[in-house]
Amino acid sequence: MLLTGSAEAPIGAQVQVALQKRLPKTKVDAIDCSKVDGLCEVVAGANLFYVDKSARYLVIGRVYDMETRQDLTAAKLLALNPDMLVGGAAKANATPDAPEAGAARAGARVTTQPAVARTLDVTRLSSKGAIAWGSGTQTVTVFSDFHCGYCRALSQALETMNVRVIERPISVLGSREIANQVLCARDRHAAVRAAYAQNPVPAGPKCDTSGLDENEAFAKAHGINGTPVIVRSDGAVIEGFRPKAQLVEWLKGAKS
């Protein structure tokens, strides 16, 4: 087992002992107590979770650095498996590596297995929460968060493609205020670019932002708790960032 940082090794060892008592069936591969004060990052097989230094409290979810605007959880998941760029919230799945009720059933998981095919009917959504940009013969709808680094990377890829993008922001990482500003901007495309670049969004007139509430309700109803989620014109869905080459091939499969 890897204990990151020499100064943290004694603390990590204590956490390891405590975890062995509380989660005896879980094989812990690495513990890092140096990133977030009061929390230790634990890697157990394909699972990623957090505990306090007494290992009494276990935390499932994302750690987001508000100062650097970095999703620390997503960065770690990508480091664990560079072949799978995971977007949005970490997946909650049970795995054989960590069968404990709690850590295993709710731990963040990275997998290279293909996702179960699903479709979404976004035609039921009104245009009030849609931010349209780009032009092309094909349209994709993207559920995004302006604080999400993978959404930014996806946006940059889509900028280079011949597609029309319907961006539907949802606030996974506390970005609702920015989404309001982008929706009300006079030049929405420029506002999208500014938001992802973490630059100030040019002020626009007050506008009706209830469409963003509609986006949020739709996402909740359909189990979208991470970003980005990309929906093709025929309703086919992929979750997480994909590089341009994969997006081009995926779009070729759209049913007319």
Automatic annotation (TrEMBL):
Compartments annotated for it: namely: Periplasm
Signal peptide residues on this chain, from the entry's feature table: none
Domain Disulphide bond isomerase DsbC/G N-terminal positions: 8-74
Thioredoxin-like fold domain location, by residue?
134-251
Q: Name one Pfam family in it.
A: DsbC_N
CDD domains hit by this protein: DsbA_DsbC_DsbG (cd03020)
Task: Name the UniProt key words of this record, in alphabetical order.
Answer: Disulfide bond, Periplasm, Redox-active center, Signal
**Keyword flag Signal:** yes
Q: What family classification does the UniProt entry report for this protein?
A: Belongs to the thioredoxin family. DsbC subfamily.
Write out the function statement from the record.
Required for disulfide bond formation in some periplasmic proteins. Acts by transferring its disulfide bond to other proteins and is reduced in the process.
Protein's name in the database: Thiol:disulfide interchange protein
Q: Which organism is it from?
A: Sphingomonas echinoides
